[in-house]
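Trying the structure run again after the queue cleared.
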Amino acid sequence: MTLAELFADGPIEIMAAEWAHNQIRIGIAAPQEIRIMREELRNIDPGMEDD
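Done. Tokens:
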């Protein structure tokens, strides 16, 4: 299953927002009630809870 297939029918959009010098910046659009958090940032604040 591709990333596009995984999110095709859901409320979350994943897009290549910017690319330069062999790097891609990923953009994520989701409804406000869905929390999107990078793993390394989640580990910084152990007080964050899963909903």
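Helices lie at 3-6, 39-44. Worth checking whether this holds up in the mutant runs.
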